[in-house]
Design goal:
The chain is built from two helices and eight strands; from the N terminus they run H-E-E-E-H-E-E-E-E-E. The protein is α+β, with helices and mostly antiparallel strands. Strand 7 and strand 8 form a beta hairpin. It comes from Algoriphagus alkaliphilus.
Amino acid sequence: MKSKISFLLIILSIFLSINNDCFPQKKELDLKIVGKWELLFSKDIEGKLVKNEFSGKGYIETFTKSGQFMIDPNYLRDDMKRNGINEPLDYASIPTFSWKSISDGVLEIQTGQGNQQIRYGFSGDTLVFGYPNGNTKYLLKRK
């Protein structure tokens, strides 16, 4: 059980692909982020669409008013299969993370492995995450 949780935390770290830069701490929640967001697509540093086994699956990321962040269990299940783990996903063991906006356009995700920051912005009803490696991720607000 403990190894599954550790595995899921590692997956989250890879999934977010973000660094641990120091930003001034300002504890608040940007309410525009609250809700369910469907992954539309990702682009690499050159602006080209990232096409892999996770593309086009419509994974959902959820940000709550209480500051919880939840990853789509389907993403975790698919990633386990990709890594050769064929046992069923124990949904009760999926960790919930916390989030906050710490400064203008900077989101912090708090995991069991530390805090990670990414930049974010909005284009209409689309949430855009910008990662330090130059990749961007586009998510559509679910109604």
